[in-house]
Amino acid sequence: MNGLLRQAIAADIPGMQCVRRSVRENRLISMVISDQDVRAAIEDSGRGWVVESDGEIVAFAVGNAGSGNIWALFVHPDHERRGYGKRLHDTMLDWLWSQELELLWLTTEPGTRAQEFYESAGWRRAGLTDRGEMRYEMQRSRMKRVTGIGGIFFKARDPVALRTWYQKHLGIDVQEWGGAAFRWTDAEGKPVGGTTIWTVAEASGDYFAPGTASFMVNYRVEDLHALIGALRKEGCNVLDKIDESEYGKFGWVIDPEGNKVELWEPPAGQ
Fold first, then answer.
1. Quick check: 85 and 77 in contact, CB under 8 A?
2. Which of 101, 105, 194, 265 is the right S-S partner for 249, CB 3.0 to 4.6 Å?
3. Range 241-263 average pLDDT
4. DSSP states of 230-254 as a string?
């Protein structure tokens, strides 16, 4: 069962503390972080999120909106490897970038799975603290935005006839599902990771809504949540919906001409 991710409230603090005491890495003496400390962190200086499974808090994260510090990100050992940490991480960073921060940072013990997790998520090493912990940073300026064209979609009054025209006259290898896949190659023609999808859709469909154009371009991005947060900060018309599935993460923004733009973070390795 997928855990429910939601914003943390004061009533969640006992469950969050339970998760914090259960972890095997980055352990603290139980009294170092009090309930009052946690409440201040999620209500005053920042925001927290929890993952709830069967009525139990099994993971949580807290970010500081003033300093950009990742104050906490922990998953109960009995609920690891279910994607909860990644979901919390992405949600927290999306919100922190929306707070007009230019730099995020965190510390973690060296030689831990947490260190591997943050490095795989794009965090950069920034040295050691006086306590011997690893410091990691992420700067907004380092965030890549569009990395390629993922797909081109357009509407037609008679999509079957139009697909046939493109297939006959332009040689596009239209498949039964209504489009074609152009696989990327290098300068020597050797295949590399990446595909651009070309599709003709029914004119009556509403997938391009609320865009006003008869076409839509899908752009590949490196970090969808970070980019969505940056676009919101910049005042862009970002749609609230984000879809996540085995096909990747999808978000949308409306450009100044009213065109719906699809942003796609492919699954790892694609």
1. no
2. 265
3. 93
4. HHHHTT-EE-S--EEETTEEEEEEE
β-strands 146-156, 191-202 pairing = parallel
268, with CB counted inside 10 A (0-12, 13-18, 19+), is: exposed
Mean pLDDT rounded to a whole number for the chain: 90
Question: 164 in the Ramachandran plot: left (φ > 0), alpha (ψ -120 to 50) or beta?
Answer: alpha
Integer Cα distance of 227 and 263 in angstroms: 9
pLDDT computed for residue 94 by the predictor: 86
Strands (DSSP E) found in the chain? 4-7, 46-53, 56-64, 70-75, 103-108, 124-128, 134-139, 146-156, 179-185, 191-202, 215-221, 237-238, 243-245, 248-254, 260-265
Residue with tokens 């940072």: 105
Q: Which residue has the higher pLDDT, 225 or 6?
A: 6
Q: With 70 as the cut, is the pLDDT of residue 141 above it?
A: no
- What is the CA angle 208-212-215, rounded to 5? 55
pLDDT of residue 30: 39
Q: What is the pLDDT of residues 156-201, one digit of tens each?
A: 999 999 999 999 999 999 999 999 999 988 888 888 778 899 999 8
Burial class (CB in 10 A: 0-12, 13-18, 19+), 216: buried
Residues 6+ apart with CB under 8 A from 163: 174, 178, 179, 200
